[in-house]
Amino acid sequence: MIGAFKTVSTKHINMMRGTPGMLIWQRNYYEHIIRNDDELNRMREYIANNLMQWELDWENPMVGGSRTASTMPEWTSHKVFA
Known about the structure:
The chain is mainly α. The protein has helices at 2-17, 37-50.
């Protein structure tokens, strides 16, 4: 069901924009359990600053590429889950 939604909405968005074949949805997402106030504040700061970083973001279609462990936010690291 989600896959169908993404397919239909992507085609519609690309038709409206005149950008056939352009990717709309991010490939993956990151889950994280917020365990304390420090982690919550780091998440809030990341979200607040994320828009300002869009021109450098690997998911920005104008930038491309892939994110490596060294460029991912600290809270997405596997170390946080240990």
